[in-house]
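Run log, item B.
One chain of 127 residues. Sequence copied directly from the ordering sheet:
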Amino acid sequence: MTRIVGFAVVAVSLVLILRQSRPELGLLAALGSSLVILAAALWGMEQILSAAQEMARRAGVAGDYTQVLFRSLGLCVITQLASDTCRDAGESAIASRVELAGRVAVLLCGLPLFQKLLELALALVSL
């Protein structure tokens, strides 16, 4: 974690310097550093996801539920990264639309679970 923080501090300094003279390079540096930090975070997430899947398997939780959870988490991370990049570029309107698209994608990802829940509720009512 300290390496990521150190890298982020250096990257922010570089971006601030570049933005004064060449704003387009500042944006590219910000995007590149964001991707490096994201890659480092995803490396750590792989271990967390493996442990969570193992715990879910031991607890007897269906794989569908954990799969939806992990996909939704991934969608949220990607959406936030894209939205922040748009805001850094001064495009807050596009960032808002990206966030809306991310919310819709998460809802679509969970739709099969909502359908199963509805079927279960209807089965309980018909008893």
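Observations after the first pass:
- The chain has four helices and no strands.
- The mean pLDDT is 88.
Flagged for discussion on Thursday.
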